[in-house]
């Protein structure tokens, strides 16, 4: 039986929702897991406790801050036990418009997830395709999750998602890495 992943996203203008759909489709094509999508605006965050594998999507707004739906429900995370759950993050942002706070909210959410016992998965390299000055979400040279930028680089989203999904499935222990 394949695994079930809970994907929870907060999205104001729909970019993170669309990316969530793409991540779901990409994962399900592998046949290794099914993905249940939850829009944080309409979901009780307690639902997160039903899953062993989580993907959380958050966009950054108002210069380095959480997307509104996550912001509104952020304190509810203090009542949620994520112990032992593997949690991967993806973030939407605009690196040209906000080069000093690109996808910052991914770090805010990631720090809270770890505080609640979640185990981080799905780190992502900062490669040459990115052009920003600073991001809180880069720790020890890597993004704490998949950084997307549909405002400027939507042509790269599908390829980034494809590569990241493999990393996530490996980190979740659902896919055996192919030897080089
Ligand atoms: C007022 C405003 C502030 C923003 N602040 C940031 C920011 O600090 N960092 C960033 O990476 N993106 C920032 N963005 C860009 C959004 O994160 C980006 O448009 C994203 O795709 C929105 O995703 P969503 O539609 O899923 O909410 C900002 C956009 C607006 C309009």
What is the CA–CA distance across the termini? 28 Å
What's the CATH H-level homologous superfamily? Flavodoxin domain
At CATH level 3, the topology is: Rossmann fold
SS-derived structural category? alpha/beta
Number of E-state strands: 10
The proportion of strand residues reads 25-35%
Order of helices and strands: EHEEEHEHEEEEEH
Hetero groups in this structure are:
flavin mononucleotide
Just name the CATH architecture. Answer: 3-Layer(aba) Sandwich
* Helix content estimate: 25-40%
Please report the number of helical segments: 4
Count of spatially separate domains? 1
What does this structure look like?
This protein has 180 residues and is of the alpha/beta class. It has one domain (3-171): Rossmann fold (3-Layer(aba) Sandwich), CATH 3.40.50. Helices cover 29% and strands 25% of the residues. It contains four helices and ten strands. It has helices at residues 15-30, 68-73, 104-115, 154-171; strands at residues 3-10, 33-39, 53-61, 65-66, 86-92, 119-121, 124-125, 138-139, 142-143, 146-148. The strands form two sheets. Strands 1, 2, 3, 4, 5, 6 and 10 form a seven-stranded mixed sheet that branches. Strands 7-9-8 form a three-stranded antiparallel sheet, with no helix packed on it. It starts with a strand and ends in a 9-residue tail after the last helix. The model has no long low-confidence stretch (mean pLDDT 97). Residues 11-16, 59-64, 67, 92-94, 98, 101-104, 150-151 line the site of flavin mononucleotide.
